[in-house]
Design a protein that fits this description.
Layout (H helix, E strand, L loop, with lengths): L4 E2 L5 E10 L2 H13 L4 E6 L4 H8 L8 E5 L5 H9 L4 E5 L2 H26 L4 E12 L4 E13 L3 E4 L4 E9 L5 E2 L1 E3 L3 E7 L12 E4 L3 H7 L6 H28 L1
Length: about 260
């Protein structure tokens, strides 16, 4: 039976993988093995892989479900062309279910590692900086100053705040003593930092210390990963500072009411 059809034996989920096979029996066998692995199936149909299957896989909200598993079937010409540009959908096919599942699990593990690495890269890590004496290169628009990273790290695009919690502005660039532009500076590094927002002599001064401003949603994620002792210490300092400022804000609101 090679005509297009739906497998009644597969429980179709709102978010899951797309599976195809050349027969209903083959489709049910593949669906059964995925069920044992607790992998949800969003769509299970008999026939060749087509463009609709690719669009269905692309619409999965979980990146680990953006995959099409084909058992003893192939992709048609339109789907083959679409696969070349559809980088967000993975296609695994074969004539042996065990081999399909083995490749699928390997792909899932690798994808999970990549996702976790991306999440770590996008996290705003704790950081504390010292504005070095006699290291003012430009006063404003942006202010360019020499800093030493006392602990943690600082990354281009992040926001800084003073030790009392006042927002100071955004890091526009970081440059080493060798005039090399870098994206990140870590504990012990001394770099020229361009900060959009403050003016030297007003909001910031030499020998001031700054924190990297960590969004609350990032703070909870940071506590679940392995930080250095110094990073953990700075994270707690920043958290306490945010709580203190939130408390002050609540008191001020209460007074106004």
């Amino acid at each position: 039976h090679t005509s297009e059809g739906t497998c009644k034996g597969a429980v179709e989920e709102k978010d899951g993988v797309v599976i195809k096979a050349d027969t209903v029996g083959g489709l049910e066998a593949l669906a059964h093995e995925l069920l044992k692995l607790k992998v949800p199936v969003r769509q299970a149909t008999v026939g060749v892989v087509n463009k609709k299957d690719i669009f269905m896989a692309q619409s999965a909200t979980n990146p680990l479900n953006k995959v099409i598993l084909g058992f003893s079937t192939k992709a048609n010409a339109d789907a083959e062309r679409l696969f070349e540009s559809a980088e967000d959908v993975h296609y695994i096919s074969g004539a042996i279910i065990y081999h399909i599942l083995e490749q699928f699990e390997q792909w899932r593990e690798e994808t999970q590692r990549q996702l976790e690495a991306e999440q770590r890269d996008n996290l705003v890590y704790p950081g504390k900086l010292l504005y070095l004496e006699n290291h003012t290169f430009r006063q404003k628009n942006p202010a360019i100053i020499g800093v030493r990273v006392l602990g943690g790290r600082v990354h281009v695009g992040q926001k800084l705040m003073s030790l009392d919690g006042a927002s100071l502005g955004q890091v526009r660039s970081l440059r080493t003593r060798d005039s090399e532009d870098v994206k990140e500076a870590k504990q012990g590094d001394e770099v020229a930092l361009a900060l959009q927002g403050p003016t030297v002599g007003r909001q910031i001064n030499e020998l001031d210390e700054f924190y990297v401003d960590i969004p609350e949603r990032h703070a909870s994620r940071l506590r679940k990963i392995e930080l250095t002792a110094r990073e953990s210490e700075i994270l707690e300092e920043i958290t306490k500072l945010h709580r203190k400022n939130d408390h002050r804000s609540e008191e001020h609101t209460s007074e106004l009411q």
